[in-house]
Amino acid sequence: MGANVSHNRGNGHKSSKSCVHILTFHTTAEWKAHFDASKETNKLMVIDFTATWCGPCKNMDPVIQEFATNYTNVEFIKIDVDELMGVSEEFQVQGMPTFILMKKGKVIDKVVGAKKEELQKLIEKHLS
């Protein structure tokens, strides 16, 4: 099924089993630099606001890995709300998981909750 890998920006770790890349950011500076660069591309970005203690977030992990495998032209990002509180506040994250879909630095859609089908529909909608 899905590979259990994530491409961790912080230490350059990535699994050799698969080319699935889910970016994770551990500092606001790292996130801001990436976010600013993303404004120059038309690539769809899906940000998964998550927390280690959040059960529904953990249930969505294999789903996000599957989506990252299937939608290779979409950039998937995980942000821990406890680690980057300022970023979570900036995007007005109030429930988890929250998935924010963005293009060119602008929020184009949002899913709150572990709603696989809804998220998939929105990814496909914004890819076309």
TrEMBL record:
Protein name: Thioredoxin domain-containing protein
Xref: InterPro entries: Thioredoxin-like_sf, Thioredoxin_CS, Thioredoxin_domain, Thioredoxin_H-type-like
The keyword Transport is annotated on this UniProt entry: yes
Presence of the UniProt keyword Transport in the record: yes
Gene3D superfamilies given in the database record: Glutaredoxin
Database matches in Pfam families: Thioredoxin
Source species, domain of life: Eukaryota
Record key words, sorted: Disulfide bond, Electron transport, Redox-active center, Transport
